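Let's sit down with a protein and look at its sequence and fold side by side. Which protein we use is up to you, so please pick one and set it down. Label the sequence line and the structure token line clearly, so we can match residues to local backbone shapes. Go ahead whenever you are ready, and we will take it from there:

***
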Amino acid sequence: MELKLNYKRTALIGFAFFGILLLWQVYDSWCPTFLTDIFARNIYNMSSAELKASDPGKILNVQWIVGIIMACDNLAALILLPIFGNLSDRTHTKIGKRMPYILVGTFVSAVAFPFIPLFFHYNNIVGMVIMMGIVLIFMMMYRNPAVALMPDITPKPLRARANGIINIMGYFGGAFATVLGIFLVLSKYINAPVAERNLWTIELPFIIASVLMVISALVLFSTIKENRLEEELHDELMLGEKLAAVETPVDDDRPMSRANKTMLLAILGAEFLWFMSDNALGTYIGNYVIYHLQSASSATMVLTILGGLASVIGFAIAGGIADKIGRKWTISAGLAITFIGLIIMCFVTPTGKVVGERGEFAFPTLLYAVWVLKGFGMALVHNCSFPMVVELCSSKKIGKFTGFYYTASMSAQTITPVLLGLVLNATLAWRTLPVYAAILTALSFCVFTALVKNIRAARVANVTGIEALDSGD
């Protein structure tokens, strides 16, 4: 029997990730700046733009509060992701074990999401934070089962390639959100006098993201029939178990072997560190651009597009690279490339060249190169790391091990906004951001390279051309 990656079906599963990254791109790009501005208004009785002009240091003073709010969201995710992973493993319904969580999580999140900018616009901190919490809780209901869906119906040796396709679909969602940010410029809203701010500038991206998220979930539901696919693919999945890249075979009737447990902990430890770095950049880059580089927020969106394009290239070729050199060295190479980009970022400074009518500085071109390197490098990392984690479990525990993967990432994302916020408050220097991220990336490289073994999966045949697009129905 040959193991064949079904590209069409994998791309359809990718609609789940399309919705996830679409929403998170809008959330991460806009919410930290919302929080900065709303706390400036309530603590100092002036907008963040007015505060930046009168006393820039006070903008940094509120970052620790921003970090705590963002971290509280992640703390909830840290608790909920493993719960929903375990629950979905044990769920059996006519529409599958993952789909009920995906549908409920999608629709509740989509309804709540547009209320975040609405409460922000009307200076309601409590309402805004509650809506952020609701969105995050129900996205956690959605996220773990949605991500577990790919390994549910993909044999182990094919998961790195499949994960590349899934992530490319996700980055299409992130790219769409980024394009919205270019046309609906957040800095234009933030820098305007409070009385002249236009609600629709910040409301439209959230409404559009909600609508597209619902559409993506409906496409997924109408095309992927979980129960039927698991039954049809049973033999292929069993063969995949025999060909898995693990030191000792996985056996549900016995405790996890010491070698596999060591491998799991090493991967999760390194993952924790690289997510500490990556989330620090993702959380604070909007504020870094607006308040440190003093450039238009639309430049952040261009950054994201370039990084996304580089990521798509990385995801497209990561599976092939892993087949040749192994997943370990593919991830190590990605971390090294990312580290080089962050070292370059340490030397980026405001240009001082005023452009436009609002007195904003021209965006430093060097930062575009940094984001290309980071996007490509982290694509290699993310493409291979999740398959390495679920390689160490059977099909009965994919949700649980997906929970382990997200426990490590969300722990990092809980700690890093607060920690970096405190560092920024102590140093009063935005240049601390790339230094912080570079140190953590270097540590993750050391942990991963030293402790993770490069175990190669058995070679499998793969189909190409028209046959690869067969839906398998």
